[in-house]
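User: Teach me something about this protein's shape.
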Amino acid sequence: MSNERLIYLPLGGAGEIGMNCYVYGYGKPDQERLIVVDLGVTFPDMDGSPGVDLILPDVSWLAERKDRIEAIFITHAHEDHLGAVGHLFETLGRPVVYARAFTANLGRHKMDERGHDPKAIKTVGKFPETVTAGPFRVSFLPISHSIPESAGLMIETPAGRVVHSGDFKLDRNPVVGEAYDPELWGEAVKGGVKALMCDSTNVFSPLAGRSESTLGPAIEDLVMNAKGAVVATTFASNVARLKTLAEAGERAGRSICLMGRAMRRMVEAAVETGVLTNFPTVISIDHVSEVPRGNLMLIVTGSQGERRAASAQLANGKYNGVELKEGDLFLFSSKTIPGNERGVIRIMNQLSEKGVDVVDDAGGKYHVSGHANRPDLEEMHALVKPQILIPMHGEHRHLREHARIGAENGLQSIVAVNGMMISLEGNRPQVAGYVETGRTYLDGSVHVGAMDGVIRDRIRMALNGLVMVNVILDENNEPLGEPWCEIRGLAETGRSRAPLVDVLEEDLDQWLRRAPNKVRSDDAKLEDGLKRVVRTVTLEEIGKKVEVTIVISRLS
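Assistant: First, the predicted structure itself:
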């Protein structure tokens, strides 16, 4: 028997939605040659990661084995699958990256922005074209999704074939991009499939998914009957939806303007790669003021409540000289991603205060999901006929439910979360080990680890406030003057009605002058004592256990 094995290892996207990163390996244990499928990001929230720009998967395990990475394959251009490529390219040893034309176009811009050679991303055609990467032969299987040129992957290995579904829906008329083609998929999976790694996002949705093409009439009717200006927001990457919205505006006799850099970049990439044709003529932002309100339609970024996007700017006031008024219509042609509700509702209320009529997706009237619902997942299972089903792209509850459905239909299933290495040898998937994984943060221009304490300290300061204490001692360890304090994020007065700073400085001075020389001569003991005083005072005065920074200066 061969002593080589086929492994699957999710480092992001399994047990969560977003930040996708999956590893496949083949070879002798701990010597496997590796390929990486997707390298995505997720976005921070102010409560859990304040000040952070992006959240990336922790790829330390991969970085330690970068000499064994054959290639990276990107299934589609959503940020949670492509967004980390430029950030982690150097860390992973600068491997070649393969993607289809639209995804490659956007990926090269990301590489260029990070100072890497855009040519490292290679354009690949669809099945049956194949890329050889070490012991792997990989083909891109076109599949519909909410962004053009999405693909599943057929991964051929000496131990059998694996299908990695990517994000998908079974849409036979997606407006833009390739339709779901069961004949093509049926041809690709002939000869058997050992394992299917499958999108689990909508496993709890019991009805078959709807086509993107079903939205046109309802959106057109809404725009046609609007009296004032019409603004619509959706995911910038949903090029099909952008076209549907723009065509509705055009049929209503409105001038169309795209607002938001990400949205314009997506349309440009789609046109450059031939994915998008016959997009309605748009006007520049500079000419919006020349159009009567009843003849204007803006398509803007910010459907998820992003503070710096066009939707939020319009809700706050003016954006590029445009201001919404009473009688205008604002359409959210999107579904709010869990966790973003607060930001979206804030924008809706701000718009309502202006007298703007806000319309949301109305239970699917103006939006359809880009992910397969439960009946569609079962159709994919039946088409691929894998021996093993491993759910991915979902929270734990999604993975568990998906695995249950697979088992009920006779498939060997296992719930594999981030860091769980699965061996695909034999007739059943087996846990082969565990890898420490998690997330890293892009904080400004640097990467910090989740365990580095930077974000933890920032959260603690935000929750508890900060007191900074400065003391100066002479060469005999005698204090020169009183300690002085600065406070941040704290009430200025407490229970004693005196200024908090004054109370702190008086108690610190008394403690410092009473402290024995052996304490004043030892920075660690001195700092510890001063912190205890600050925390005792602030707890008594304002009921807070504050964060404390001590600055000790000594004159020699």
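Now, about its shape. The domain at 5-207+369-449 is CATH 3.60.15.10 (Metallo-beta-lactamase; Chain A). The chain has three domains: 5-207+369-449, 216-360, 465-554. If you'd like, I can walk through any region in more detail.
User: That's plenty for now, thanks!
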